[in-house]
Amino acid sequence: MTDAPISYAGPERVLSGVQCSGALHLGNYLGALVKFARLQHEKQTFIFVADLHAITVWQEPEKLASQTREIVAAYLAAGLDPMKAAIFAQSSVREHAELAWIFNCVARLGWLDRMTQFKEKSGQHKERSSVGLYTYPVLQAADILVYKATHVPVGEDQKQHLELTRDIAAKFNNDFKAPGFFPLPEPLTQGPGARVMSLRDGSAKMSKSDPSDNSRINLLDDADAIASKIRKAKTDPEPLSETLEDLKTRPEADNLVGIYAALSGLSKEQVLAEFGGKGFGTFKPALADLAVSVMGPIGDRMRGFLDDPGEIDAVLAKGAADARNVAAPVLDETKKLVGFWRA
Ligand code: TYM
Question: Which of 140, 150, 269, 303 is the most interior residue, by most CB within 10 Å?
Answer without folding.
Answer: 140
